[in-house]
């Protein structure tokens, strides 16, 4: 019996219209365009400004576009996994809300939070449902309204993050395409370096926590940078070695868009040139769980059936990992 694999059969994305430039941030905090570009590679980012709109709205729009593009109806979808760190609310799951907004009446859904590694954690999880047999059409969406937890008085973090969403459709295949291998790892001791201080069960919201501005991203940049550089490269290198991948037979490196210096360091470690690395951080910033699928969406027209892709990410938790997949269709 042939092995069933989960193959990406479509990808689409959605970005808010409003563009927050470095020049605008210069008016909000003590920073400069040159400083931001040299340290992060970011020139601008998209922000969802409409009232009463959240991550579910971004995700639902990406999924609607995905369904139209792939010729599927909402009723065809069996499962939706939503990767996010900015849910609409504490409960219910944002995935459930997206199902309602996108008309996925026959799908069950749940949220997955693995920080910036969320998309690849969700992708691997979704692949297991497909490989099991009963699930024929599964959507993974990475969707984030990072602006909802960014402190725009903190110059260390407000320059980094943006809003956006992108989704992929997984279907079963018995051909040599799809998700071939993966590596997912965590280290919970990293929580002290990157987290949101208040709003959870340890420190519920109160006047005190709001006054102390503890409902925003807290990040110790240097500590996170040092670990991210090592772990992203380690994960990529391990997957390449055990699958006999080289700089010559790997068509694309698809890294999480956290920081241009981290992306470049990962590429150098595994010998991948920048011209074979998907990079769009300059226009969108760090959209957390949405960065990798946004790259796949933007580069889709350049992808060919059989291309070897290496996805790699690092996020809060700490979480990190890599996915090796063979692209299943001509873009």
Task: Give an overview in words.
- The chain is α/β, with parallel strands linked by helices.
- The chain folds into two domains: 5-176, 3-Layer(aba) Sandwich (Peroxisomal Thiolase, Chain A, domain 1), CATH 3.40.47.10; 180-326, Thiolase/Chalcone synthase (Peroxisomal Thiolase, Chain A, domain 1, 3-Layer(aba) Sandwich), CATH 3.40.47.10.
- 32% of the residues lie in helices and 25% in strands.
- It contains ten helices and 13 strands.
- The strands form four sheets. Strands 1-7-6-4-5 form a five-stranded mixed beta sheet, sandwiched between helices.
- Strand 12 (308-315) and strand 13 form a beta hairpin.
- Helix 3 (55-70) crosses helix 4 and helix 7 runs parallel beside helix 8 (260-270).
- The longest helix has 22 residues, at 221-242.
- The mean pLDDT is 97.
Structural topology:
Elements: E1 5-14, E2 18-21, H1 22-28, H2 33-40, E3 44-47, H3 55-70, E4 79-83, H4 94-102, E5 108-112, H5 118-132, E6 138-145, E7 163-173, E8 178-186, E9 194-196, H6 207-211, E10 217-219, H7 221-242, E11 252-255, H8 260-270, H9 281-284, H10 291-299, E12 308-315, E13 319-326
Helix pairs in contact: 3-4, 7-8
